[in-house]
Amino acid sequence: MSETTAPTPYLDHIDTLTDNGWPHLRYLADWMRVTTAPPKWHLLSTEDKRERASRVKVALLDFRADCVTRLDIFTAAQLTELSSNPPPAHDGLLSRLFVVEDLSCDMIEILGLNLDVDPMFFREHISDYIWYNTRDPWIELPDIDLVSRKRSHFHASYSPTRYFRTHRDLLLARMEAGGFNVLRRIDRDGIWVPGADIPGSEVGLLRSKVSFWLQPRKESNTDPVTAILLVDPSITRGFPLWGGHNDFDVCPSVADKVRVRPPQNSIFEDTIYHLQNMSAEDLAMVARDPRMLFQKPLCVVCAEWQTLLQYTSTRLTQLEWEIQDPYLRNIEEDLTTTLDKLHPWRRRFPLYKTIVSEVLTKVIRRQEFPSATTNSLCILEKDFELILDKLDQLHNRAERIMSVVTAVMSIEESKKALGQNRSLARLTYLAVTFVPLSFVSSFFAMNEDVTRLGRTFWIYFAVAIPVTLLALVVVRFSDTFNNIARRLLQSFAMKRQQYQHYDNKHQ
């Protein structure tokens, strides 16, 4: 529980909603009291809770027709002052956007109270669970479409890829993600290819979200709008895979001035960079559709999905090489290891397709939105459709690889069984060798007077050796004898038919 004794009217409002029709908001209320994911409450000291509850990192962007200004906010008092005062209506201001990194109890309380934010906006952003147990209290059930169309917020989930030179860097990155207030995780890819990857290197797949909320206009459509953009904190360990994505504009000419872009080490700074460099046409579109403020962050989401698809295609290609050339695998690995590498991707593809489909349905193709007369996000519809098609292709490719691996394993098992049968054949030859010897020796042993065998001892070898050789020849060439006998019978049958036909003809 939080140690603060200050009034919390927004949290009290959430408690009231929890008891009167919105039970799933209980998780948000517990989150605000614990200051992070409730299951972590027993791991936090009083100082940890106080520090987490008071985190504030916000950039206030004011959009005008000719420029975008930025004001950084690091204290709760400053955030309270700027969020409680409405934006000026006659200052050429088009919109005001609060870009928030991570979330905290203080930020939710201040922004939620002063801007009258729907609590479901915060509730849907703070967790990243992809499946639930039957007794999990943090279950997040989706709204029916009728209700979701009335809400003035939406979310876009994606999975950035990050490269780690050592396994220790990945573990440290997981600990860093554990320090976020919002629940985010890093999934280990677990695929390492000899000769292609540095020994011990890892690729992590993050689970991230970006969320957008718009305060509906209360008066005319010409008044400035206020919006909130929630982005995730950044992992400092490791590097963006393949150096990150390119800019979203065509390359400038030699005569044009090149903008200085900050390194892609911070989702917060990278998002603000793209928002501050919106074109004049994009800024003019904000008045007709405030969702234009979400177009650039959605471009970042699209670019991260494309990077993930390229990485997935690379890994599936490497798995195909392992099937074709066993020398590409480790000495102690077999095709069972290849299956172990493939199973996580087969599990991820349906999840990825569901996430992209939700972005298409609930964000890009959504026509009804407060204070909007057009849809400025539909320009990205083709890009996300291509991503969804690519996911289908990769999913089918993974299933085909699974079938090939299973078939190859069956062939290898058949080869092992064939080798075992050959070993049994050798044992059969030994048995065939000794059975005639035993028979002949038993046959000659029926004489009661052993001394009388001196003159006939040579007969044993004269009879046993030919019989043994004959038995070996019969066993060794039994298939050949069968084929010869079959051909003779077929030839005899054909001649008999010819004779019968000749007799019938001349009768």
Short structural description:
The chain is built from 15 helices and ten strands. The protein is elongated. Helices cover 51% and strands 11% of the residues.
What do these coordinates show?
- The protein is an alpha+beta fold.
- The chain has helices at 9-18, 26-34, 46-53, 76-84, 105-115, 119-123, 145-148, 167-178, 267-276, 280-285, 295-324, 335-364, 381-444, 457-476, 478-506, and strands spanning 58-64, 68-73, 93-101, 153-158, 161-164, 186-188, 202-206, 208-215, 225-231, 239-240.
- A six-stranded mixed beta sheet has the order 2-1-3-9-8-4. Strands 6-7-5-10 form a four-stranded antiparallel beta sheet.
- Strand 1 and strand 2 (68-73) form a beta hairpin.
- Helix 1 packs antiparallel against helix 2 (26-34), helix 12 runs antiparallel to helix 13 and helix 13 packs antiparallel against helix 14.
- The longest helix has 64 residues, at 381-444.
- The radius of gyration is 38 Å and the shape is elongated.
- The model has no long low-confidence stretch (mean pLDDT 83).
Labels describing this entry:
15 helices; 10 strands; alpha+beta; single chain; 51% helix; 507 residues
Judged by helices, strands and strand pairing, the structural class is alpha+beta
User: Can you list the strand order of the major beta sheet?
Assistant: 2-1-3-9-8-4
Which of globular, elongated, flat, extended, rod-shaped describes the shape?
elongated
Q: How much helix is in the residues? A: 40-55%
Strand count, sense and barrel status of the largest sheet are: 6 strands, mixed
Mean pLDDT: 83
Taken as a percent bin, the fraction of beta residues is 5-15%
N-to-C series of helices and strands: HHHEEHEHHHEEHEEEEEHHHHHHH
Number of distinct beta strands: 10
Uncertain runs with pLDDT below 50, 5 residues or more?
Answer: none
Q: Count the helices. How many? A: 15
* End-to-end separation: 115 Å
Cα gyration radius (Å): 38 Å
